[in-house]
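Box 3.1 A note on notation
Throughout this textbook, protein chains are presented in two layers. The first layer is the amino acid sequence; the second is a token string describing backbone geometry. Keep the layers aligned when reading.
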Amino acid sequence: MMTTSIPTAEEIAALVPRWTRDLERLLPIRSQFIISGNIRDHFLTPVAEHLITPAPLRRCLWQVLARQHFEILLIYDPVEGIRPYPGNAATQEIARTLFKLNLQDGQTMPMSLDHLADLMGLLNRTREVRAALLIDFASRLARHPDQLDAGEHRFFLAAERLAVHAVPIVLKTPPPGHDNRPRFNPILWLLNRPQDLPSWFALDNARIESIGIGLPDFDVREAAARSYFSLFAPDNENTATIDETSQAAFAAAFARATEGLTLVALSDIAQLANRQGIGWERVEDAVQCYKVGVLENPWKKSYLKSRIAHAAAQIETRVKGQPQAVTKTVDILMRSVMGLTGAQAKSGGNRPRGVLFFAGPSGVGKTELAKTLTELIFGDERAYIRFDMSEFAEEHNSARLLGAPPGYVGFEAGGELTNAVREKPFSVVLFDEVEKAHPRILDKFLQILEDGRLTDGRGDVTYFSETLLVFTSNLGIFIEDEHGRRVQNIVPGDPYEVVETRIKDAIADYFKYHLSRPEILNRIGDNIVVFNFITASVAKPIFVGMLENVLRRVREEHRLALHFAPAALQRLQDWCIEDLGNGGRGIGNRLESRFINPLARALFALDDLARREEATITDLVEDEMGIVSVILR
């Protein structure tokens, strides 16, 4: 790993983790520290004048203590026990003579909680050296933080009492150059979450300080990225010959693509790029490979652009009568393919590839368009993942979608959504009838739309950065009037401009005033695609296509070719398209009741069906009870 040259001391100071500065500032007045959050990460640490590099927490912590003339850091974890850090002869000698530690192999010593409590007291009383105790994996000391057994309760009570009664020390024999001002020999608890300690432990205790460690920001990631530049360069390229501008561009691109990731993740990505032979110009491909586990990206295939160029014509063969919706969808799709979704934001690279909100009457092709997009982009409808949001009308159903919280039954299984996207990171994800989901579940979409990721109950992160999200909704078809009655907002025959305006207004009202969540609408932005009612001219080809499907099924099942007399065909068409309020789905429903059901009866009654090769439907007859009969010849 190459270190990063930082030109000024001020820039180094700005990049040094804040938690280290807080710790150094508070050492004279706090006896114990609860350090939690991103504790397993690496942190930018000065290693020499004008040089800074990522390092583990222990090394970073030791640099803070060493500047205050600490001579030893004792590290305890529940598995190995206690050991001195750094593991040199001087610290081992201090551990043996001053703290009476019988180190095995000169390195570690098993220790019970009772003996650890005694060591804490000895640490606080010593005046010979400045020493600190780091309790690692402190989240695992107790099985249940608020249901302690007798031994655990005795240990935490002793630690709390020590925090209250501890006093800062002055060394008997200070080292040369040491100001010897009073400072505590501190105890540092390393936790995943502050709640992993008993709730009463730090309550109203001014001697215990809580320090949270967050994820690295853009500037820190950018500085760390320079440390990994050499791992990205191809073997035949000398990194010394690459100009500073290119290295700076690499670092900025790496930092942008890794928002929300740790510095350890950046190191892993660099190692992955090195093994995969990914050059520094393709840093985003390396990040994508780390997130979704696949280097081949369908969104960057050369053939996709040619497919999208003819997408409108292909879509219109399956979704008929929606020219405005198809045009807007193709525009958004082109933006997704070019990787420009969220380009106006500094961190837009982690967002989903595209977001589409399909709104309009029922049965006009919203779901069909989502399927068509899947086949168009990925060449396979099986890359299409659908969730019927009416199944998630209750808040507790969020556990099914996203995974149960840690500790609840089934949390280890993850969520249906997160598992599906993890299995198919390149996919179209359809949330059908999204307005029927519980509002608390809709809140989860904020994180997906903004950050492009979700964390399930197991703590696994699922990335949505390579998905196309499609929401469908029937919002705006009906609204409530001033008396609270449900009335139709748009009707067949309204101009498209009227339909689009009224539906968009109704969607805005729903998110702003009904849900009180305008932030969801803001994340969706101008990606609302409004579908129109099916018109009579469009209904005829839809009817013809559905009828051809029926006749083909009869040929496949019974090897019988059916033909229509013109009058019978016209009568059936008139019946099926007389009411277009339910769109294409309504045409299919009437075709089923007016033709498929009576056809099944007629075929069932034929004694010579197996011997026939063709038949003609001469008429469709409706009796006084509304029952239709098919007349076959």
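Residues 1-7 have pLDDT under 50 and may be disordered. The first strand starts at residue 4 and ends at 5.
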